[in-house]
Write a structure and sequence with these properties.
Distance between the termini: 60 Å
Structural class: alpha/beta
Mean pLDDT: 93
GO molecular function, one term: exonuclease activity
Strand order of the largest sheet: 7-8-9-10-11-18-19
Number of domains: 2
CATH class of the largest domain: Alpha Beta
CATH topology of the largest domain: Metallo-beta-lactamase, Chain A
Number of strands: 19
Protein name: Ligase-associated DNA damage response exonuclease
CATH architecture of the largest domain: 4-Layer Sandwich
Strand content: 15-25%
InterPro entries: MBL, RibonucZ/Hydroxyglut_hydro, Xnuc_lig_assoc
CATH superfamily of the largest domain: Ribonuclease Z/Hydroxyacylglutathione hydrolase-like
Keywords: Exonuclease, Hydrolase, Ligase, Nuclease
Number of helices: 10
Low-confidence stretches: 331-343
EC number: 3.1.-.-
Largest sheet: 7 strands, mixed
Radius of gyration: 20 Å
Length: about 350
């Protein structure tokens, strides 16, 4: 009789049978342990949520009045003799890895993560384990990130050039995580920073935790003359909308790991691409895996087959599992955010 794995991949999500609890489930369950606030990892409909305490206001903003309890990083909580704890994932504010220990066996589920310190989220910390469940959103050698200091220098230079040409700069970034990272490092000495409603609302949830530059919400009363020379931060869903057309003359840019490929910029009809991701690049993934000391690696979303094949060549016991997590592809705006495009 084969041993039941400590964590199983089911049609509802990643399940710990010994504790009768799910990790980032994609279908409604009784008890869910949540890594972070992005829509593919924290979904509506669970009876009870457990997450890192800084993630609580974020998921409540998105999901409404839910039953949720918060834990500190490194704090052990026990469910049916199974030990759980959250550890920094460095992905976005409030993001965590989940450590699971039972019968001398340790698994770590990363959710989404990055090892570069962005100066906003608590930096990623490697957690020693036997089995490591990793995303590989950017699990190809072609993905190699430039240090963020250089990227933001380029972004601010681009903004200044646009200002000198009498144009509005529109920078697209996901409303949770990417937008706040952009805001943190934009240079307000260049001009004013305007925001789309979805980004303003989410940033206001996070402002008590992080010091951000002043922002101005764009409303129906905002005139395009006010925007010229200044910066507008908007979600990708705003691109091509009636909301954005009144801002002519403008120049657009996107901050994403996918901007590594020029074709991605062309397909999205973006004028400029800045390679900036809240996920690991190829080297980051390999470094993270090595530092865990794990021998068994499960890849969940991204370039799973290619990445797992490479890990097996390195000597790891590596395999893939299908999930409904989509990494940077899934950090899309919710229906609520879409409706705010016209405001």
């Amino acid at each position: 009789m084969s041993k039941i794995p400590l964590l199983q991949f089911t049609d509802k999500g990643i399940y710990c049978a010994a504790a009768k609890v799910y990790l980032d489930p994609w279908k409604p369950v009784d008890k869910a342990i949540i890594t972070h606030g992005h829509a593919d990892h924290s979904r509506w409909g669970h009876k009870q949520y457990i997450t890192h305490h800084t993630n609580i206001p974020i998921i409540k903003h998105r999901l409404g009045d839910i039953k949720v309890s918060g834990k500190e990083y490194g704090e052990t909580f026990i469910i049916n003799n199974v030990k759980f704890s959250f550890h920094p994932a460095g992905h976005i504010i409030g993001s965590s890895q989940i450590r699971v220990e039972h019968n001398d066996e340790i698994w770590v589920f990363t959710g989404d993560y990055k090892i570069e310190d962005d100066g906003i989220s608590v930096p990623y910390e490697p957690v020693t384990c036997h089995t490591f469940i990793t995303e590989c959103t950017f699990g190809l050698p072609a993905f190699k990130w430039t240090p963020q200091k250089e990227v933001f220098s380029d972004i601010n230079q681009w903004w200044e050039e646009n200002k000198n040409e009498g144009k509005t700069s529109i920078l697209f970034g996901y409303s949770l995580g990417k937008a706040q990272r952009l805001l943190k490092y934009l240079n307000p000495e260049i001009g004013k920073i305007y925001t789309h409603g979805a980004i303003e609302n989410m940033t206001n949830v996070i402002r008590p935790m992080i010091d951000f530059p002043e922002t101005t919400l764009i409303t129906k009363e905002t005139k395009k003359e006010e925007l010229i020379g200044n910066m507008v931060i908007a979600p990708p869903s705003a691109h091509g909308s009636t909301w954005i057309r009144k801002m002519v003359p403008y120049v657009t840019a996107s901050a994403s790991g996918w901007m590594t490929f020029r074709g991605a910029r062309r397909r999205r009809a973006i004028d400029k691409g800045f390679v900036l991701s809240d996920h690991c690049d190829w080297d980051g993934l390999l470094t993270a895996i090595k530092e865990t000391g794990a021998t068994k690696i499960i890849s969940t979303h991204g370039y799973t087959e290619i990445f797992s094949k490479y890990l097996r060549e390195l000597g790891y016991d590596a395999r893939t599992e299908k999930t409904q997590y989509e990494g940077e592809l899934a950090e899309i705006e919710t229906q609520k955010e879409e409706s705010e495009v016209s405001t």
